[in-house]
Amino acid sequence: AQSVTQLGSHVSVSEGALVLLRCNYSSSVPPYLFWYVQYPNQGLQLLLKYTSAATLVKGINGFEAEFKKSETSFHLTKPSAHMSDAAEYFCAVRLPTGGGNKLTFGTGTQLKVEL
Amino acid sequence: KAGVTQTPRYLIKTRGQQVTLSCSPISGHRSVSWYQQTPGQGLQFLFEYFSETQRNKGNFPGRFSGRQFSNSRSEMNVSTLELGDSALYLCASTQEGGPGTEAFFGQGTRLTVV
What residues 34-63 of chain A have any CB closer than 8 A to a CB of chain B? Predict the structure, then answer.
């Protein structure tokens, strides 16, 4: 079975500061990993995904994530936070076979950006 | 191209009633998955339908059911509603292309059970 752990349910940063949202996964086989963002009263939007092509993945809105197999991590970063980045962020894992399109999500991290 | 459409956006139901939620996927997508989102449990997978067949099922009671039609539109039904069923129900549409394929989410249906 696969699972995802997101450390820190709430993260607060100043505008212009580095954003670091943590995600660790557990999977018996090499997984596919995703980061989604959710704005209030909205669905989820894909930020980026890891599909084994490259360990450093760049996504939309200046976000990127690095897959580290040795640490079973896929942390999300952005060099400079913007007020519009305030939202909830979810890390998710999908099995390479046998799971269809099922995504298993972490519990989410609420990002607050302060002036 | 049109996104994933979920109707209705908001629902208020009474305990014991049943409810049906609808999801229209992106044109050409044959996979539809449903998720329940609550503050306490986060995002939980309910089930996935592909070409009118349930392909995966999460760990929910039998009161939760779904179906998919030949045009890929999907419905989920919850019978004998309980207060704990209050949640945001999200539908995701995926085009078959392997495990790295993006799932596109609708805006959800906010169900409140009173």
Answer: 34, 36, 41-46, 49, 51-52
